[in-house]
Amino acid sequence: MVESVREVMTPNPTAFPATATVGEAARAMRDLDIGDVIVLDNEQICGIVTDRDIVVRAVADGREPAEVKLGDICSHEITTLAPTDEIAEAAIRMRERAIRRLPVVEHGRPIGVVSIGDLAAERDPGSALADISAAPPNS
Protein backbone atom coordinates (compact mmCIF):
# COMPACT_ATOMS: atom_id res chain seq x y z
CA MET A 1 0.00 0.00 0.00
CA VAL A 2 1.20 3.49 -0.86
CA GLU A 3 2.14 5.44 2.25
CA SER A 4 4.14 8.58 1.37
CA VAL A 5 2.99 11.77 -0.27
CA ARG A 6 5.77 11.44 -2.87
CA GLU A 7 4.04 8.34 -4.25
CA VAL A 8 0.73 10.09 -5.00
CA MET A 9 1.69 13.71 -5.68
CA THR A 10 1.67 15.29 -9.10
CA PRO A 11 5.34 16.18 -9.61
CA ASN A 12 6.84 19.34 -11.09
CA PRO A 13 4.13 21.86 -10.22
CA THR A 14 3.73 24.95 -12.35
CA ALA A 15 4.95 28.01 -10.49
CA PHE A 16 4.88 31.72 -11.25
CA PRO A 17 6.33 34.75 -9.49
CA ALA A 18 3.88 36.81 -7.46
CA THR A 19 4.30 39.56 -10.08
CA ALA A 20 2.93 37.38 -12.91
CA THR A 21 -0.59 38.19 -14.06
CA VAL A 22 -3.81 36.28 -13.64
CA GLY A 23 -3.97 36.04 -17.44
CA GLU A 24 -0.60 34.30 -17.58
CA ALA A 25 -1.67 31.80 -14.94
CA ALA A 26 -5.04 31.18 -16.62
CA ARG A 27 -3.35 30.44 -19.96
CA ALA A 28 -0.94 28.02 -18.28
CA MET A 29 -3.84 26.28 -16.53
CA ARG A 30 -5.65 25.91 -19.86
CA ASP A 31 -2.60 24.80 -21.83
CA LEU A 32 -1.35 22.35 -19.20
CA ASP A 33 -4.81 21.14 -18.11
CA ILE A 34 -4.17 22.00 -14.46
CA GLY A 35 -6.30 23.68 -11.80
CA ASP A 36 -3.68 25.52 -9.77
CA VAL A 37 -0.33 27.28 -9.86
CA ILE A 38 2.13 27.84 -7.06
CA VAL A 39 3.00 31.50 -6.40
CA LEU A 40 6.62 32.33 -5.55
CA ASP A 41 8.33 35.28 -3.94
CA ASN A 42 12.14 35.09 -4.19
CA GLU A 43 11.87 31.41 -5.17
CA GLN A 44 9.94 30.59 -1.97
CA ILE A 45 6.27 29.61 -1.92
CA CYS A 46 4.13 32.55 -0.86
CA GLY A 47 0.77 31.22 -2.05
CA ILE A 48 -1.32 29.17 -4.41
CA VAL A 49 -3.90 30.24 -7.00
CA THR A 50 -6.64 27.94 -8.26
CA ASP A 51 -8.89 28.33 -11.26
CA ARG A 52 -11.70 29.14 -8.83
CA ASP A 53 -9.60 31.89 -7.22
CA ILE A 54 -9.20 33.51 -10.63
CA VAL A 55 -12.95 33.50 -11.19
CA VAL A 56 -14.00 34.61 -7.70
CA ARG A 57 -11.20 37.03 -6.82
CA ALA A 58 -10.58 38.64 -10.21
CA VAL A 59 -13.03 37.99 -13.05
CA ALA A 60 -16.23 38.20 -11.00
CA ASP A 61 -15.09 41.57 -9.63
CA GLY A 62 -14.56 42.90 -13.15
CA ARG A 63 -10.80 43.07 -12.71
CA GLU A 64 -8.64 42.88 -15.84
CA PRO A 65 -6.71 39.56 -15.95
CA ALA A 66 -3.78 41.19 -17.74
CA GLU A 67 -3.38 43.68 -14.88
CA VAL A 68 -4.11 41.69 -11.72
CA LYS A 69 -1.02 40.14 -10.14
CA LEU A 70 -1.09 36.64 -8.70
CA GLY A 71 0.28 37.97 -5.42
CA ASP A 72 -2.88 40.05 -5.08
CA ILE A 73 -5.31 37.13 -5.34
CA CYS A 74 -3.42 34.07 -4.11
CA SER A 75 -4.20 32.28 -0.88
CA HIS A 76 -1.32 33.35 1.36
CA GLU A 77 -2.00 31.09 4.33
CA ILE A 78 -0.43 28.11 2.70
CA THR A 79 -0.23 24.64 4.18
CA THR A 80 2.48 22.41 2.75
CA LEU A 81 3.65 18.84 3.03
CA ALA A 82 7.03 17.15 2.83
CA PRO A 83 7.37 14.33 0.28
CA THR A 84 8.05 11.93 3.15
CA ASP A 85 4.83 12.82 5.00
CA GLU A 86 2.28 10.05 5.17
CA ILE A 87 -0.85 10.17 3.02
CA ALA A 88 -2.95 10.10 6.19
CA GLU A 89 -1.32 13.39 7.25
CA ALA A 90 -2.30 14.97 3.93
CA ALA A 91 -5.91 13.93 4.46
CA ILE A 92 -5.90 15.30 8.01
CA ARG A 93 -4.53 18.68 6.90
CA MET A 94 -7.04 18.93 4.06
CA ARG A 95 -9.91 18.10 6.38
CA GLU A 96 -8.79 20.43 9.18
CA ARG A 97 -8.26 23.40 6.86
CA ALA A 98 -11.01 22.62 4.31
CA ILE A 99 -8.59 22.73 1.37
CA ARG A 100 -8.35 20.57 -1.73
CA ARG A 101 -4.70 20.96 -2.76
CA LEU A 102 -1.44 20.95 -0.83
CA PRO A 103 1.96 21.90 -2.26
CA VAL A 104 4.73 19.42 -1.53
CA VAL A 105 7.97 21.16 -0.57
CA GLU A 106 11.52 19.84 -0.29
CA HIS A 107 14.46 22.05 0.72
CA GLY A 108 12.19 25.10 0.45
CA ARG A 109 11.22 24.38 -3.16
CA PRO A 110 7.88 23.15 -4.52
CA ILE A 111 8.31 19.68 -6.00
CA GLY A 112 4.69 18.56 -6.28
CA VAL A 113 1.04 19.04 -5.43
CA VAL A 114 -1.29 16.58 -3.73
CA SER A 115 -4.99 16.99 -4.41
CA ILE A 116 -8.01 15.51 -2.76
CA GLY A 117 -8.52 13.56 -6.00
CA ASP A 118 -5.03 12.05 -5.69
CA LEU A 119 -5.90 10.82 -2.21
CA ALA A 120 -9.25 9.44 -3.35
CA ALA A 121 -7.64 7.58 -6.25
CA GLU A 122 -5.15 5.98 -3.85
CA ARG A 123 -7.44 5.19 -0.90
CA ASP A 124 -10.70 4.41 -2.69
CA PRO A 125 -10.05 3.83 -6.42
CA GLY A 126 -13.69 2.87 -7.06
CA SER A 127 -15.13 6.07 -5.60
CA ALA A 128 -16.90 8.68 -7.68
CA LEU A 129 -14.25 11.26 -6.76
CA ALA A 130 -11.46 8.96 -7.94
CA ASP A 131 -13.32 8.36 -11.22
CA ILE A 132 -13.87 12.08 -11.77
CA SER A 133 -10.25 12.86 -10.96
CA ALA A 134 -9.00 10.26 -13.43
CA ALA A 135 -11.38 11.26 -16.25
CA PRO A 136 -10.09 13.28 -19.20
CA PRO A 137 -11.07 16.97 -19.17
CA ASN A 138 -14.20 18.22 -20.86
CA SER A 139 -13.31 20.16 -23.98
Q: Main attributes?
A:
139 residues; alpha+beta; CBS-domain; three-stranded antiparallel β-sheet; three-stranded mixed β-sheet; 6 helices; 6 strands; 35% helix; globular
Please identify which CATH superfamily we are dealing with. CBS-domain
The largest beta-sheet arranges its strands as 1-6-5
Characterize the biggest β-sheet: 3 strands, antiparallel
Q: Helical region count? A: 6
Indicate the CATH class: Alpha Beta
Order of H and E elements: EEHEEHHHEEHH
Calculate the mean pLDDT score and round it: 88
**Which radius of gyration do the C-alpha atoms yield?**
15 Å
Report the span from N to C terminus: 34 Å
Q: How many domains, as an integer?
A: 1
Q: Care to count the β-strands?
A: 6
CATH architecture call: Roll
* Structure class: alpha+beta
Low-confidence stretches: 127-135
Share in β-strands: 15-25%
Shape: globular
- Predict the CATH topology: CBS-domain
Helix-residue proportion: 25-40%
What does this entry show, briefly?
The protein has helices at residues 22-32, 51-57, 70-73, 87-97, 116-123, 128-134; strands spanning 10-11, 15-17, 36-41, 44-50, 101-106, 109-115. With 139 residues, it is α+β, with helices and mostly antiparallel strands.
Write the layout of secondary structure elements.
Blueprint: E1 10-11, E2 15-17, H1 22-32, E3 36-41, E4 44-50, H2 51-57, H3 70-73, H4 87-97, E5 101-106, E6 109-115, H5 116-123, H6 128-134
Parallel strand pairs: 2-3
Antiparallel strand pairs: 1-6, 3-4, 5-6
Helix pairs in contact: 5-6
